[in-house]
UniProtKB/TrEMBL annotation:
A GO CC term attached to the entry: cytoplasm
Keywords: Cytoplasm, Methyltransferase, S-adenosyl-L-methionine, Transferase
Transmembrane segments: none
Protein name: Protein-L-isoaspartate O-methyltransferase
Stated family: Belongs to the methyltransferase superfamily. L-isoaspartyl/D-aspartyl protein methyltransferase family.
Length: 294
């Protein structure tokens, strides 16, 4: 069965990285290397293409796992292992490097934690936070053989987060947590779904400059996730829906001070997104609007 799984993984990795336009060969290598079977549990499995009902596989053939599709961890709650093509694209956007320290918020059963661990290599570190006790236990068991991964069974919104080069969030939020911004090292990237629960928002990447309150920011594409506990806001969700309806790919910076001006795309408490560029411009990556479900 392992030979068949390896064959499926090789094709799946090539297919999703082609769809994600991934230029870093390490991303394809990571998806080809990391098996999905331990992270989803025994079959049959419930699979969805996102925004559609789950379909139960006829049996436990691992071929069903290696699709560009959502794999249910808890179909009743809508908890999934996210769409691999979307994650491949977002991981390419934040350019995770070997030796970096990554914080993952919302680790689930640990599949994308393992992908991140492959990307940073043994010289790097991945801190995975999962607030759901059952999922955190699964993640810890699934990842116990990867020495440079540490699973934390608590909220990832905390003042004691380690300093990080990348913060990769897998739960939708109405705002970036101040704790995430503070944990970033200069040059560090925060990638999170600006998408309160139940809303199609966007995957926003914010880069911390060496100094100053104007940070480069851009949407990598549309996204929808289960909500991040503690970062939900019904009024912000309503206003965000209106902002996305009027366009979203012109955002160029996050402002952490000053009064929002005519360039403001969306304003939160103590922060706002602007269509004006930051003093330091990040590498260009084209938004990918047809990758939505995570």
């Amino acid at each position: 069965m392992e030979d068949r799984s390896a064959k499926y993984r090789a094709f799946y990795a090539q297919l999703i990285c082609a769809a994600a336009r991934a230029v870093d060969p390490r991303i394809e290598e990571a998806f080809r290397t990391v098996r999905r079977e331990p992270f989803v549990g025994p079959g049959p499995w419930s699979i969805s293409l996102g925004g559609h009902p789950y379909v139960v596989t006829p049996d436990d053939d691992p071929a069903f796992l290696y699709q560009n599709a959502l794999l249910a961890l808890d179909s009743a709650r809508g908890l999934n292992i996210g769409m691999p093509g979307a994650h491949a694209y977002w991981l390419g956007g934040c350019a995770v490097k070997q030796g970096e320290t990554v914080i993952q918020i919302g680790a689930g059963s640990g599949y994308y934690t393992a992908i991140l661990a492959h990307l940073v290599g043994p010289g790097g570190r991945v801190h995975a936070y999962e607030i759901d006790e059952r999922l955190a236990g699964l993640a810890r068991d699934n990842l116990k053989y990867i020495a440079h991964v540490e699973v934390h069974d608590r909220s990832g919104i905390a003042s004691d987060l380690p300093a990080a080069d990348v913060i990769y969030v897998c739960a939708g939020a109405a705002q970036p947590a101040t704790e995430w911004l503070d944990a970033l090292r200069p040059g560090g990237r925060l990638v999170f779904p600006l998408a309160p629960e139940g809303m199609l928002g966007g995957m926003l990447m914010i880069t911390r400059p060496d100094e100053g309150a104007v940070w480069p920011a851009k949407f990598l594409g549309r996204a929808q996730f289960i909500g991040c506990a503690g970062l939900q806001d019904a009024d912000a969700a309503r206003r965000l829906a209106e902002a996305f309806a009027g366009g979203w790919d012109g955002v160029q910076s996050l402002r952490r001070e000053g009064t929002p001006d005519e360039t403001c795309w969306f304003a939160g408490e103590g922060w706002w997104l602007s269509t004006a560029p930051a003093p330091v411009v990040t590498d260009s990556i084209r938004p990918h609007a047809d990758i939505t479900q995570a």
